[in-house]
Amino acid sequence: xxxxxxxxxxxxxxxxxxxxxxxxxxxxxxxxxxxxxxxxxxxxxxxxxxxxxxxxxxxxxxxxxxxxxxxxxxxxxxxxxxxxxxxxxxxxxxxxxxxxxxxxxxxxxxxxxxxxxxxxxxxxxxxxxxxxxxxxxxxxxxxxxxxxxxxxxxxxxxxxxxxxxxxxxxxxxxxxxxxxxxxxxxxxxxxxxxxxxxxxxxxxxxxxxxxxxxxxxxxxxxxxxxxxxxxxxxxxxxxxxxxxxxxxxxxxxxxxxxxxxxxxxxxxxxxxxxxxxxxxxxxxxxxxxxxxxxxxxxxxxxxxxxxxxxxxxxxxxxxxxxxxxxxxxxxxxxxxxxxxxxxxxxxxxxxxxxxxxxxxxxxxxxxxxxxxxxxxxxxxxxxxxxxxxxxxxxxxxxxxxxxxxxxxxxxxxxxxxxxxxxxxxxxxxxxxxxxxxxxxxxxxxxxxxxxxxxxxxxxxxxxxxxxxxxxxxxxxxxxxxxxxxxxxxxxxxxxxxxxxxxxxxxxxxxxxxxxxxxxxxxxxxxxxxxxxxxxxxxxxxxxxxxxxxxxxxxxxxxxxxxxxxxxxxxxxxxxxxxxxxxxxxxxxxxxxxxxxxxxxxxxxxxxxxxxxxxxxxxxxxxxxxxxxxxxxxxxxxxxxxxxxxxxxxxxxxxxxxxxxxxxxxxxxxxxxxxxxxxxxxxxxxxxxxxxxxxxxxxxxxxxxxxxxxxxxxxxxxxxxxxxxxxxxxxxxxxxxxxxxxxxxxxxxxxxxxxxxxxxxxxxxxxxxxxxxxxxxxxxxxxxxxxxxxxxxxxxxxxxxxxxxxxxxxxxxxxxxxxxxxxxxxxxxxxxxxxxxxxxxx
Length: 841
Known about the structure:
Layout: H1 3-13, H2 21-29, E1 32-36, E2 41-43, E3 51-57, E4 60-63, E5 75-76, E6 81-82, H3 84-89, E7 96-99, E8 103-109, H4 110-119, H5 122-152, H6 169-182, E9 188-191, H7 198-207, E10 216-220, H8 229-232, H9 241-245, E11 249-253, H10 263-272, E12 274-275, E13 289-290, E14 294-299, H11 304-308, E15 312-315, H12 326-341, E16 347-348, H13 350-357, H14 364-379, E17 384-385, E18 402-403, H15 404-407, H16 409-415, H17 419-442, H18 451-471, H19 474-477, H20 480-495, H21 505-529, H22 536-556, H23 561-566, H24 568-577, E19 582-586, H25 588-594, H26 599-602, H27 636-640, E20 646-650, H28 665-680, H29 683-690, H30 699-726, H31 736-739, H32 744-762, H33 766-773, H34 788-814, H35 822-840
Parallel strand pairs: 9-14, 9-15, 10-11, 11-14, 16-17
Antiparallel strand pairs: 1-8, 2-7, 3-6, 3-8, 4-5, 4-7, 12-13, 18-20, 19-20
């Protein structure tokens, strides 16, 4: 390159271009061209500069140990003049400069450059002017940045609080969405429930983007001026936040609280990146201004206008669906607060974790954080955060429950032992049932001489009807019918190895209940017309009939298909179990957070404290149970669960009937059939009370009267509901299928009152009856028989309480005034009075 070309290049490309051509020519005469290989230190920090360097081609970068002035670490472009200031002011080098690529550099040795400065003082003067101009520019820029900082400071977000904690699929997906949003400049809508730290997610997006060095501000839309002046500024007046922000990020927090007048302007800003400054004058409107800011919108409620113009949506999952992340989240909070206080890190007890996982956290992460902080304070010097400290982490549903397995640890131990139910069933019940059936066939045929017949009608019915409000379907756990069904299933698979049929749930749910209704109707009529209560072999046939059904269907279908869908006794048990004050359930939070194998439902090998099982015999998951109908209390799930999720709760009797219950027509039909059964069992008393003269020794008259006894009582609730719809004192009544469950206490109480007489008058004769069964004289054996007045009293109290509980339950189910439900309450009282007439009187 000629001297003239060099001068031209210096004039056009470098900071020396302000010098006269004569001076530049003198500098050009002293230039030496060098080629520096890559990864070479051209200059070392804090050394005496050896030359003036001018970069012609290549890439240089610098680094500095001066952390107080990060601006010293810069890159250099073509034409950069290096060490001009240092040589003029006799200063050491401020940076270490390294070649990134092969660089072509013009070099003027320090000695020669100082000679040139002495010959041409204008070099120093020109550089001084340049430095003065740069200082003025820097002062102006500093003043602007100072004003900008003052304007943005109230809204400034300095850093993200934390990342996304957890390893669940929700946490992983949320992290991916944040990373994707950070790589783009599109507007983002961050949508979710309160307490999810959505503004922190906005900060994560900004600080993960290329514009992380630009400011990020958060503006609460609820306090914005309706004119938008604080956001958009005023024409000829105060600048708005968007102007000060430049290429930074603005977070519009709680967009749902935006004043309606301002919403269209925000929509235009998000959609077109333009806005209009507020102008109160009558001058022609000023052209729209362009915003370079990135917009992140945070919302708790759906805003269709905003959503339609947003480039990217992030829906933040609530904590209740991220139960698997609770442990990691709690550990993080514990670390955070213990480090801040200088304490040792406390551990979270397993029971406390299960309690937290069973809670739904309506306040989400903020609620969990405050719970952990308070727990740490309450724990004091304790090294473990126990379950009791998290006392408020209970749902409303859980507040009405007491887990008996925690209150009585020995109960848990017994229910998980081989005694319940295998040893009871296969060590006693299976053999006892065979003996019972044999005695019914070959022993005396009347109840006063056959102890099994006495046991069945005078003891079994009363005892388990009394037990339903306490333990639900507990009879089904030790039921001999299904024991022989399981034995048949195992033997048939051993003799004929095959795959048992899976359940057709849809068909079984549709028709199974009606099969139970039909079979129970036939059993009722058979019991009444052939006097099963006093005919031993026919009672045995009834037992064998039900057992045969269990055995046949167990040989065809897997698990206990008969028990769940077809057993008439099971259907009755499931209906009355709805009133029980106990329930078997699992904590949904623990199941969703910790369980991946579903061993309580599917079965499987031993895992942790979970035992090896074949899974729930009724194919019910304890966390999904809505009522007690589909749980036989076999405790298989309790044994299989490795996470202690299964609970045996004490609860308000029948609480789901007015909370989560789903009514079914076939259940209502069975309920009213059992109501008619009370009257069917009392045909002679009913006939006497009504003054009728049917000859019950005649089969067809007996059958006709029996059918009337089953049907007529059902007309009372239907008539009451019809009157409620016609003569409406208040709101329109709920559907009949829902209100019908209100009669459950009355139906149970009526059946119990009927069997109380048999139990209290004949149950105490079990010893002499047992001797008579085997042909012995037991007249001298002790007898315990209640006085008729005592029997009447207990039957009457049972019916009175049944009517009262029916009224209370109906009120709970309907949630309507007593006046609206007057006719249904009157129907319950009428039915109760009629039962009193035929049972007590």
